[in-house]
Amino acid sequence: MTDQIISPDSAAAWNNRGAIHWLRGSPDGALADFNRAIELDPRYADAWYNLGCARLGQKDFRAAIADFDQVIRINKKHAAAWNNRGAARIALGDAEDALADFDQAIYLDPYRASAWSNRGNIRYDKRDWDGAIADHSRAIELEPRLFESWNNRANARRAKGDLDGAIADYSRALELNPWYALCYANRGVARLMKGSINEAERDFDQCREIAGHLPPHIVQHINELKVR
Fold this sequence. Notes:
Layout: H1 11-23, H2 27-40, H3 45-57, H4 61-74, H5 79-91, H6 95-108, H7 113-125, H8 129-142, H9 147-160, H10 163-176, H11 181-194, H12 197-211, H13 216-227
Helix pairs in contact: 1-2, 1-3, 2-3, 3-4, 4-5, 5-6, 5-7, 6-7, 7-8, 7-9, 8-9, 9-10, 10-11, 11-12, 11-13
């Protein structure tokens, strides 16, 4: 496939080449092409959106938010832009504005599983266990192979004291992604809480084998359980 732009005055052509650059692992080329598309057509929402996604992927969260702002100004019904702006805001610790973005994304596109999952994560952080479970359940209905939502629903169930339900959800997440190290650690905590010490240790060992170590918050949780 050639990198030559056949129609150098076509914003769509630059946007499309930018997408190819991104898929090939050339973020600088992608950013340059998306910016050129926008220079040619400042109201080209897809180019602004792609630019925002690229910056989100590079963890340039403030720039990503500015790009998604532009998308929303051009097209207020662009559910993906609302959802991704919320993700960028979460990364910057702005949970309240992120929650409003996820609410709007769900309103515009109630079949967008990632928006339900993202909102479920905020509700979990707010200790709204029932709200988190409901949102992740909806995400799972829409995308049954969304292993992160299985894990995150399990976290909320564990927090509520439903250890059997949590362990079942963690196990399903691991069926979908056997290399999900954090999920082994989470299931280990649930098993430890239930008193299944040997099974818990096997989960912790599996996490260490994949990731090289247990996450610090998991170690803290284990220590707290041992003190009780």
